[in-house]
Amino acid sequence: MKVKVAILGCSGRMGRNLIQAAYEHRSIELVGGTVRESSSFADFDLGELAGIGAIGLKTSTQLSDLSEAEVLIDFTSIEASLENIKWCQKNNKSLVIGTTGFNDEQVQIIEKAGEKMPVILAPNTSVGVNLMFKLLQITAKAIGDYTDIEIFEAHHRFKKDAPSGTAVKMGQVIADTLDRDLNKVAVYGREGITEERDRETIGFATVRAGDIVGEHTAYFADLGERIEITHKASSRMTFALGAMRAAFWLSNADNGYYDMQDVLGLKD
Ligand code: NAD
Questions:
Q1: Which among 49, 66, 76, 158 is the best mutation to test ligand 1's pocket, defined by most ligand atoms within 8 Å of the CB?
Q2: What is the pTM of this model?
Q3: CATH superfamily assigned to domain 3-121+236-263
């Protein structure tokens, strides 16, 4: 049985990749999608939006047109996602939220919604990145107290934030595992620092260049050897495919608030 999925935010960079990933997925049936009310892509063929040719499904501006969908995948904006949760709760839909940037209070709203519906909050839906978080945990536990830890990330020239949310999350996972406070041990630049490296610190280095989709490496370096754990994204399709995996998993889940570690079975 295929899971019926709709995409919210179809005309966005991620939306277009999500349409293609859903349409081509063997366990998912794409049943519709939304664009903003004011969008010039309203009533537009979803396949044409995604660049895969017409597929006979049109974009809508109303969530009520998505009654056939079991799981909605939302890569829109913070404001839109918070509205979409309310509608899903009222209409018994499951929701995968890929939108990023929620503050603590907004995360709590989503967490609370999980008491009445199945919802995944996944600021990074890449399967590889989420597996990397687990590998960082294992490595930090085994050797983190004896090694120098540095995190390197590289992205395209248009990226607005630095270091990336994923790099910060890598630091957070390592710091949590080692019982360190990231706010106290993170070092974002070493210019002017002349004394020997403090073992407790976790360093961050950033490169912005050309069209790099996203690269992250954590170094655990001792005298004589080092471990490097690297993830490289080569296209947005990695996020779209991870979102499909999340949607499929969520279609079988009870009411609850979940993340990608649940989807991948990586929780302790
Ligand atoms: P984008 O600006 O290209 O796309 C967002 C789209 O949502 C726009 O087309 C916008 O018109 C549409 N939209 C806004 N409100 C809407 C509404 N009420 N109904 C329907 N459509 C609406 O941005 P993007 O690069 O596609 O990213 C979207 C979000 O996903 C951002 O928060 C981004 O940080 C996040 N993101 C997450 C991951 C992940 O792995 N989870 C990966 C990439 C991007």
A1: 76
A2: 0.90
A3: NAD(P)-binding Rossmann-like Domain (3.40.50.720)
